[in-house]
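Re: How this chain folds, sequence and tokenised backbone to follow
Notation: Tokens come from a learned vocabulary of local backbone shapes, not from coordinates.
Start of record: The labelled sequence and token lines come straight after this line.
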Amino acid sequence: MHTEGLFVMSSVEEIHMCPMCRDLFGQAQPFPCGHILCPACVRDAWRQSASSDRGRRFVCSRCLEERGVVVCDCCPQEESDDDQKCAAVKTCLRCEVSLCEQHLIPHLQRPAYRTHLLVEPLTDMSRRRCPAHREVFRYYCIDDMEYVCADCILEGQHAQHLVKGMRKMEEEYKGTLQNRFKRVEEKLKQGEQIDVSQVLQMGSALQAQVDRLVSAVTNITEQERQLALERVQEDFSRVREDLKQTENIHRFLGSLLEESDPFLLIWAFQWEDSQMMAELNTPVFTPAQPNMNKKRVVENVENKYREFIAEILRCLIELKRDLLSSPLIMDRNSAHPLLNVSDHLRSVTRLQKRLSVPEHPDRFDHWCQVISCQMFSSGTHYWELEVEGFWDIAVTYHSIARKAKEGTAFGCNKISWSLTQQHDRKLAAWHNRKKTRLSTIMSGKHLAVSLDYDSGSITFSEVGPSSTLLALHKFSTTFTQPVCLGFGLYKPELNSRVTILKKI
């Protein structure tokens, strides 16, 4: 059980113990049944519900352990031993009775029951009833975020509040969930298309690299063949020159043999004799066997092969980073009033004057910070950012306090880890108020953040030429809560800004 980071939460935050796994956790909203589970057990319960015969309906894991068979309130007493007839399948909150399949039929068919709210069988109605008036909750106060009964409204406690009926709230929430469901489906399709597109692009890139390697090797061989051919041609020219000289001697000797003037014969013989004998004693030039410089060919091929491997590795690294890149947008509700988040929620700029923004429980009210909408509790993730000015990039628990000064700055508590570039462009890593000065200074504005939740590692790197990564700092920890990305901006005169770069 990890408790190290639990006691640095906000003092107003209650610490709970999960009844299922006995682990401690912080802020939580109780279920209608009254049980409070840790986030991990809630996710497990959802997964189990989705894979069971209950379909997508969520059932509290604790209730499943505690609950027996809910008996139908309308079945005769003498039939109480018959499980098939007396097991309730629904509970009507209007009638406050549990109904078996047979006695549920009127509620499903008769118009008079059409407005009755049916839920899964309940053994305890107290959680669905107003403790002050003992009436069943049929309304929801949006301003106070609590269930109310008709008497609560009549007594005036919620007279000026926005109150809606449970059915209306159900319809609105289901409409919102339906829209979100469609957006998620579209996002999944886009992700699949992007993945397929990335793989196809990578396949084309790899094929291009292979083609270039084959072409390079072919060119190297052709170049060596041309050099060997040129040498053969040079040797052939020399052989032809020797043959021509020998033919000249042959013709000269033939003419001497046919000469009839002895004086001319003797003069010619004596004048050409030494030069002719030297040429006759010189062996005929025999060219070497034509061959290519195999050593040079091998060296050139090896160089091309090394270039090919380096390029393939670069492509694979780029593909890995593209596939690990997680979608990320900024939560405008968390942004300090001195921060301006763009319409597409992917860029934030430090302002000179405060924006007029509504109060929100998630908003940072002291430090100029904003966090991402997405939270991560497993897996490996990668993001690239464009940073400028005086900035602070952090991985933080989503539960970080947002109000007041103490314990809310990134890196100044046990639940956040950050990298800061100051006004003098010097870098520093922060965690739990401890500052680690870095000797490296970024040459550009391209920063990468790698998160491995399961192994507890956070790596900040500068993205250099050809997408190479230069590691700046690495944190190692053990995560006990969902994390998100955080962005802090200071010194507006430095044009401080952060942009989330979209991988294509």
